[in-house]
Sequence to fold (382 residues):
Amino acid sequence: MPSAVKKLNNLPKHSYRFWQVPVSALKRRLPTFDEKGEKNVTPEGELVMRKTFFSDLKLIGEVFSFSKTKEDPGAVCERSYTDFETRLGCARSTVGKSMKACTEAGLIKQTKHFHKKAEYCCEGFAKDEFHITIEQYLTELEFYIPRENRSRKLNPFEVVIISDFATYSNMPGAKGVEYTVQEMHKKFGASTKTVRKTLKNLVSAGFASCRQTIHGCRGDVRLHFNVNADVLKLMKHEWRENRRAQTERRRAEEARKEQIRAADEKAKRERYYDVLRQQAEDRAQQYRDYAERDGEFREIQRALASLGFKQAEAEYKGLRDILDDLQRQETELKARKAKALARLRIKEEDLSPKYRCPKCKDKGFLLNGIMCDCYDPPGGDP
Fold:
């Protein structure tokens, strides 16, 4: 009879971050580098290879999770080294070493861009390759290990083992998972002693239960493990929902950037027309100020201004004779004004702003609200 799974404390209520690591990545070997960044070679000229570290697996899983999704086959992982450092919980130097080893081994392809973050995708794995899901909380939280009578974080091998068990147990129709110690030794590359110790710790902590006795069993005996139901529940990610949410966030971010770009373009356009309009108005004001210095012109302008009010009053009251007399006075004043302007060498149109575009009068928009086609700033703002 299978032993009951112990209650596992300190589990989070939800799990959102995880890494999908291809199974073949557990056996891959990566090149090593010296202090100058060159590959280490033996005296015979062969490359010195090493096992994949846990930081390598997390990096591969971060990229693989994005680049091998069925919902978005063309998706790529856009990250900066700072993003990798935060999401993987590794030092920047560790991220750099893992990235260099994975790219040199052909597991990850890096595409750099000048204007945005670099893009990463996995090319060293099959599209339909099976992967295990490593939950991020397994690497961050502390769990009580009764065998050691202390609370501590799980070591990388323990995280990989429980992630492997839980991934296979979460498959449709699965009733636990079966392994022999020798099979785990070959699959994960750890000694049988380390495998037994890890299994005992995980069973003791309540991550899984085993029907057989782990201590003292032969290496070819099949051990049946049942994973804690709470752990399996946390692993049931709605990947499609996550991808849809990410797509919506990306679209919202693109829409926000488009709004910012449109607002910047609008502000630039308004500055352009403000400058043109101000230049035209300043030029006309200079001519008006120069003309106002002449006493005769100033007197004529005041007379024309007062005459306008008298004409409006006479027209309102219907005083036709007075209105005709006021019109004759206006004609005489305008003739005197033209002579005064000619004497000052000023044209009548110089007193009004001369806009560069007569259609929109340097406002950028026509009367019907359509943007004018005169917008053409040479090399930016004028």
Notes: Residues 180 and 220 are 5 Å apart (CA to CA). DSSP finds eleven helices and twelve strands in the chain.
